[in-house]
Structures are given as structure tokens and as C-alpha cells.
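FW: tagging you since you asked about this chain on Friday. Here's the raw sequence from the shared folder, copied in full. Didn't touch anything.
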Amino acid sequence: MSTFGSVNTNPNKSTEVTQSPSDCVSSLTFSPKANFLVATSWDNQVRCWEVMSGTSVGSAPKASISHDHPVLCSTWKDDGTTVFSGGCDKQVKMWPLLSGGQPVTVAMHDASVKEIAWIPEMNVLVSGSWDKTLRYWDLRQSNPVHVQQLPERCYALSLRYPLMVVGTADRNLIVYNLQNPQVEAKKIASLLKYQSRCVEVFPDQQGFLVGSIEGRVGVHHFEDSQQSKNFTFQCHREGNEIYSVNSLNFHPVHHTIATAGSDGSYHFWDKDSKQRLKAFSRCNQPITCSAFNNDGSIYAYSVCYDWSKGAENHNPAVAKTNIFLHVTQESEVKPKPRTGFRK
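HL: got it, structure written out here
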């Protein structure tokens, strides 16, 4: 049996999304324009729900599409009309969700597609793959407009134009200025000693966060003059048990941080005052990914077995996949003035 802290699937009393996927969730993304939530999963599906909020929060399945193999990543077009998804079938599909159109393949790689992002300022899609390339796609053309070689497989990507950070195998962290995407703007040595799992660029574009399998987050700044502000903090640990940090999200209004991990918990932090704002109870399985909606009033997170403890800890009786919706409170996500890192 797994050694997770709770036998309760939903100890934080979040709202469960109806008709959850049948296998583990690999990505969650909200529409930038409305409360539509998209999830990709290892059951080869891309699903969309409409999330209703008000005095209470609820959800209704809207639509779904299939890939031929597990789906690993998703993103929305900035106008909220279209969803892109990529995965182990080595392709990216464009799904005109709001118009009810059929998905079409718009990008191809030589190995699984791990990360995708839409760049509205350039009107292109960027995809990162285990084939050790980034590829930029003008959707009117079948071939990429640029192929950027990476030193290793792409594991994580975050973009706030014009800055993009890519995390690869071997702990490489590469910064690109998308005004000149053919050139690495900077290669940064990770503050963390183990494999990178997720990256997230600061809203003010002064730096980025990196989370790793060692239950730790690194806070990096881009400018050489700001390096003294770099630090790391521990999270998603329980005694001698150390768990992966699987997801990092900035709150879209307050710019505080949400972390989620394989210990089955999520926490809200303020990096500027170096303190944890709110700790939540551990679910009975890992949290694999998470996302805020566009105004930060809802935090979605997926609870499912991520195989981090191997097959011997996979219990089919409890290995159900759930997606939960947490209604955020101002006191949980608003920064508080304080000095020194408080856990």
C-alpha cells in the first residue's frame, strides 16, 4: 500500500469535477477568457468542462477528443476559442473547441511532445519534445518555421513574452528571448541537485521558479545583479519522505505561488516575503498538475497515482483519478508582509 498521509480522497472538501478521466491527468489548463477547464490524460483523451462559479462551484462536461496515444500537454489560444494538445503520438492537435470543429494535426515531432505554448505576439505555436528540439509553427504551414536544438529532452516550459524558460533532462535551464528565438539568451545552472519537473516564469519577468523531484523549489533571477536574491525552499516533504514538486502556478492577480506535489498536497506561498500562506491536507494520492482560472478565484488540481512509488504501491482499489476545484479565499492567496522564510 502507498504511504500517503490520508485515506481521504478529498480531505480539503473541494468540488469534484464530473466524469473525471479514466487514467492519470497529465495537464490542466483554463481558458484565458472563460471558465472552461481542459484536462489531458494517459487514457488518450482531451476533455473540456464548463466550470460554474458563484455561491458554489460546479462543472459540466462540454466536449472531448482523442489522440492515438497518451496526451501529455495542453494550451489555449489567447482568444479562448481553440485548444492545442500534444503527447506520445508525436503530434500536436488543434481543436477549435468553441466552434464545434474537428481537431486537425498542426505539428509533428520525432518523439513524444511534452510541452506546448501559444505565443500570441508572434502568432505561432511552440512545442518541446523528447526528441531534444523546440519547434515553432505557423499554423498556415505544414513545416516548422524554426527548429531549435536542445541539449537534452524537454521536460518543462514556461513563457511570458518575450521570455521563455525551458527545463530539460540533465537539469539544463535555458532562457530564450523570443524576439530572437534562434539564440540561447542564457543557460542557467539549476539551484537544485535533482531532475527538474516544472518551471514557471515570474509575472514581472524578472526570473522564474523551478521545481524538482527532491521536494524543493528554486527561485532564480535573470539579471546578474539580482543573483543575491536567488534562494531555494523545501516543500512536499514528510519526515524522511521526499516527494516531487509536480506543478507551479502563479496566482493571476496577487502573483503568489501554488505548489502541488506527489505527497498529495498543495500549498500557497509568497516568495517575496518568504512565507507559506496556507497549507492544505494531503490527499490519498499524488497531485500531478494544477491550474488557476483566469481571475484566480478557482484552483483546479488532479489527484491520481503517478507511479512515483512504483508498481508495488499501485492499489487499483484506490487508484481512481479525480479532478478537484478549490474556491480560493483572499486570505489564502493575498501576500502578507513578513521577513524570513516561514514554513
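FW: The chain has one helix and 30 strands.
HL: agreed, and The first strand starts at residue 15 and ends at 16.
FW: great, closing this out.
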